[in-house]
Predict the structure.
Amino acid sequence: MYNKMPAKVKPTTIFAKHIYASAFDSDFYLLLRERRCSTLADMQDETLEVESNIMATEKLKGNVDRRR
């Protein structure tokens, strides 16, 4: 969608990445911004990786809690 926007109304890449990342909660935002993606498309790809890492961590925490 971003790439289809006319140049007159298209936000800068930095601003577009900021707006995209700020749509998530603050913890997720921080994890996403730490990735230092160069494009919005890269940031969207990294979102999937961050999300899968969070889910894996939560699953591991669940296994630890069950052992106690």
